[in-house]
Structure formats: C-alpha cells, structure tokens
Backbone:
C-alpha cells in the first residue's frame, strides 16, 4: 500500500488526454559563405570559408529549469535549461522534444513517475506541460523561454570550414575542419601553412582563395572557388 500511494498521488496531479502531433518538417539548409569574388575581412580564429548542409529546427530555449511539481513527492519531470526542437503542432499547441542540437535540454524523470513522452506548449497562454506515455499531462512552473532556430546534428549534418590562425614569418596558417553526423567534434582536422610571398592564391580540396593582406590580427581575402 505504501508503494501504491505515491503512484496514486502522481496520477491525481495529471489530467487531460493529449493527442501529440508529429507533423513538423525541419528546413534543409545549405551553407556557402562567403560570396565568391567579394573582398572579405576576418580575424584570427574566424572561419574564412564554410560550406555544408544540415536540417534546421524551430526550437524553444528554456532560460531556466522548468519543473512539473508533484507536491510532497517533489516533481514529476524537470526540464533543464537548453534547446528543445519542435516535433509537431496544431491550431493551439506546439510539441517539443530534446534533440541532438547545440546546447540541448534534457528531461529528468522522478523514478516513480510514468515515462516521459513529449512537451506541450500552449501558444495562447505560454503554459508548458509535460506529457506521459499514457498521454496525460501536467503543467510546469511558469516557463521562461525564447524562440530560436537550431541545426540538428543528425546523419545529414555535414559542414566543412577553413579557419584563419594567423601568420608565421611569410606564411599564413589555415586549419581545415570537417563535421559530419551526430558528433560535436570534427570528424577530420588538418592545419596547413601557405607561403604567400611566392603566391597570393592558396587552395585546399578544390577551394581557392586570393590573399590580399594577412597579419597576426586579421586577413583580407577573396574566395575564388568553394570546396569540391
């Protein structure tokens, strides 16, 4: 009986029968920057060339932790600070989940609570709810959130970039980083020095740049070709 009582208390705190929607389609984003043949200025540590493709999601960023309270039992779910990506929507509600994105949010479940299914946001009132796998919901503490867009680092994620690292005598130092799939770390990285006293055009994997000026603070350049 003592084990059953907390479950009864938690069930009394939940209400409604939610019908989550999973109809949201993220946007396919293709990066190619900067524009070709246009003079650019960048500083040490900046990316001077970047191309790639990924899926971009509408998301909410919780600015503070949101808790779905459970009286003396503490809580049902705790939603940490971070980004939650949209899964679906209807006329009034939006539905969100943690995802493989920068600064992701996470869900902490009370051990005696039902497994978590999805977050529900009331667009009329800005109230936030946690929804169980049995599609029962409970309101969280008043959420503080901002709307944002985030890239999803799933299997379609591929970004390649050159970064300016400064000068070494008559040479400039450029690093190449390639990001692919779910990993937040580069799949491949390489650093190369180019002697620009001999030639003001440098290249890497089909990309070509004309160097107009380079110091240990900044670089002026034009991109002639993107990666191939």
Residues:
């Amino acid at each position: 009986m003592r084990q059953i009582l907390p479950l009864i208390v938690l069930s009394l705190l939940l209400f409604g029968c939610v019908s989550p929607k999973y109809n949201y389609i993220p946007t396919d984003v293709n990066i190619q920057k900067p524009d070709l043949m246009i003079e650019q200025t960048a500083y040490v540590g900046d990316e001077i060339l970047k191309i790639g493709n990924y899926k971009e999601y509408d998301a909410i960023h919780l600015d503070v932790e949101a808790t779905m309270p459970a009286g003396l039992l503490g809580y049902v779910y705790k939603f940490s600070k971070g980004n939650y990506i949209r899964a679906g929507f209807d006329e009034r509600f939006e539905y969100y989940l943690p995802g493989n994105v920068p600064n992701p949010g996470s869900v902490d479940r009370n051990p005696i609570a039902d497994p978590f299914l999805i977050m529900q946001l009331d667009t009329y009132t800005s109230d936030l709810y946690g929804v169980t796998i049995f599609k029962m919901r409970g309101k969280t503490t008043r959420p503080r959130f901002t709307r944002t867009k985030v890239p999803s680092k799933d299997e379609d994620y591929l970004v390649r970039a050159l970064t300016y690292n400064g000068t070494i005598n008559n040479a400039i130092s450029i690093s190449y980083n390639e990001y692919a799939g779910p990993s937040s770390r580069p799949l491949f990285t390489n650093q190369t020095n180019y002697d620009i006293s001999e030639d003001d055009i440098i290249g890497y994997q089909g990309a070509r740049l004309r160097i107009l000026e380079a110091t240990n603070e900044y670089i002026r350049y034009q991109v002639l070709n993107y990666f191939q």
